Amino acid sequence: MFERLAAGSPSLIWHDVPVAVSLSSPALVVAQACDALAGAVAGITAEGRFPIVIGGDHSIAMGTWSGLRRALAPPGLFDLLWIDAHMDCHDPSTSPSGALHGMPLACLLGRCHPDLAGVACPGPPLTPGRVTLIGVRSFEPEETAFARRTGLRVVHMEEIAAQGLAAVMPLPAGPFGITLDLDAVDPGDAPAVGTPEPGGIRAAELLDALRPLLASPRCLALEIAEYSPPHDVAGRTAALMEALLRAAVQPGEPP
Ligand SMILES: [Mn+2]
Fold first, then answer.
1. Which fold has domain 20-249?
2. 35, 57, 79, 84: which one is catalytic?
């Protein structure tokens, strides 16, 4: 896939971020990986290039977005479109599963897992009023309470089903980033995820809504998380990945 994309975009560079899986706890592995990822994203942004981060579970968002924040001139503010079936707004005291990928947004907003604090998301928290969750349809009450308390904007799947994604997708006036958890997409179109949730955004609708955003010079970074190729069915998720990446690296080209 990379070779095909690079054929049309010679400036594309592949960059691996190593993960030290030998560390003693999952939180330490995630903290170390996010620290390395934040450094990579900050460096790529500082060079005036556009980072595209592909993961891996959504805990990588802590590295990506704290890295972007670090690279921008103070106060380093940007809007973040968080497209996800889940809210990822837990901390260890509220999480039903203890899964770290259910916690990255809370951490980025300043309520961080103690083992991740200062490493996975160093620096000041993001501004909740500048983050919009889009596609939400699976969450716990503690996450809704956190969103209300902090002023996080949430666009539920019901609104998308009623009005269409294009009608509810924000178009930020200033710099912004996009984090796409592939489980926001309907499992019929993107089965290659770890936590599928039925009734999601259709792939074609997502691509139509993202194309103008990815073509905007104000879009500073794209992250695509939770891609799990062994779970794919008939190459559907791979095809969506390639279309998304093509929209990001060749934004002027027809689909
Ligand atoms: Mn997520």
1. Arginase; Chain A (3.40.800)
2. 84
